[in-house]
Amino acid sequence: MVVLSLRRAESEGPQDYSVALRRGGALLAALLLLTPPAAWGHCAAPAQFSFARPTNPTDESEFSIGTSLKYECRPGYMRRQFSITCQDNSTWTSAEGMCIRKSCTTPSDPMNGMVHIGSDIGFGSQINYTCNRGYRRIGISSAVCIISGNTVTWDNEAPICERIPCEPPPAIANGDFFSHNREDFHYGMVVTYHCDLGVRGKKLFDLVGEPSIYCTSNDGQVGVWSGPPPQCIISNKCTPPHVENAVRVSENKSLFSLRDIVEFRCEPGFIMKGPRSVQCQAINRWEPELPSCSKEVKCRLPQLNEILEVTAMRKEYYYGENVTLECKDGYILKGSPQSWCQAEDIWDPPLAICLSRSHGGLIAGICFGTILLILPIIVSCWIILKKNRDNTDEKSKEVNIHLHPQEDNCVHPQALLTPEENS
């Protein structure tokens, strides 16, 4: 368009040609301003690389086509230099793969353990260590490939895996245990108990319980025995029976004889299932089967109105559990905010209720008005009683004056009598 205008102006005359030239220059300048930098044949400054840095840093924000920038690989990568170039499409050539990560030495499995390698062992990678079953780790569980001078290395050494130890097995009365080593007890080791014998190998006790226990672990660090040791009980005796959440009502003994009976009672809040009493039988057996005390639902909430709210409300509550009551805005709680479930579906203290604040104000107003009405009556009665008391006191004084005249003004009656009359 600009070229056609110039040619037309040139054919028309020199003056028109110069005007068209100026107009064309202004239009060209406007087009250049509106065109993005990429269209001018430039590249914007390249983004920073995590694996390389420029050898000659610059603050330039634009680079012309054909410009090359030199980089060198950062520590942790194979040392080398490379360049990227601004291309005709205003983009830089790729730098991917120009820097290769250095690799740490291949880690070996710890004794009685294992090393777990991720994708590789290059700079920045992490490895993890675990110990075999029955062993515990002493040391750090992982390591990272880091820079060390001009090379890379693992930041932590491999841990040690040692056998999980157990305390010596518990001793028992009237018996002992067999073990090939009575000083060192570790994971997987088994000990077997036996009862003492009498003269000439006579059996004196019954072994009650599991004869063997073994060393194990719940957390992979501390060793524990698999269960309680057995007991050596005098023949035809029974150890005290135990029922969870129950108490023995009968006499408490360390050992029970044959046909002794033990009676149980469940703790408050629990209900018994099974027989209440059991009897000692041979070989430390109790018959019938021991009862159980289970927690049963004891309390239910009544139908509540919409203005009373219960925190974490449930349909059923067990013995000893409590509820917290609240009222909605505009109401006040009358009673305790908390109640506890007791036996026989009873709440203690009784469940509170919600009263309207206006209703409460009405009650307070009635009480205050009643006090104002009664108070004048009480004051009037008090004044009347006080006046009556004052009048009574004055009359008492007058009588006293007549009965006790002063000696200066009156003659005693006996002074007027003759001596014969006095006698």
Question: TL;DR?
Answer:
Keywords: Complement pathway, Disulfide bond, Glycoprotein, Immunity, Innate immunity, Membrane, Pregnancy, Repeat, Signal, Sushi, Transmembrane, Transmembrane helix. The protein has 423 residues and is an alpha+beta fold.
CATH superfamily of the domain at 300-392: Complement Module, domain 1
Strand content: 25-35%
Low-confidence spans? 1-10, 398-423
Major sheet strand order: 6-7-9-10
Count helical runs: 4
Number of strands: 33
- Averaging pLDDT over every residue, what do you get? 80
Q: Give the class from helix and strand content and strand pairing.
A: alpha+beta
How does the overall form come out from the CA principal axes? flat
The biggest beta sheet reads: 4 strands, antiparallel
Transmembrane segments: 362-385
Keywords: Complement pathway, Disulfide bond, Glycoprotein, Immunity, Innate immunity, Membrane, Pregnancy, Repeat, Signal, Sushi, Transmembrane, Transmembrane helix
GO biological process, one term: cellular response to hypoxia
Domain Sushi: 41-101, 102-163, 164-234, 236-295, 297-356
What does the model show?
Belongs to the receptors of complement activation (RCA) family. Interacts with C3b. Keywords: Complement pathway, Disulfide bond, Glycoprotein, Immunity, Innate immunity, Membrane, Pregnancy, Repeat, Signal, Sushi, Transmembrane, Transmembrane helix. One of its GO terms (biological process) is in utero embryonic development. With 423 residues, this protein is of the alpha+beta class. Helix content is 20%, strand content 33%. The strands form 12 sheets. It has a 4-stranded antiparallel sheet, with no helix packed on it. A 4-stranded antiparallel sheet has the order 12-13-15-16, with no helix packed on it. Mean pLDDT is 80; it is low at 1-10 and 398-423.
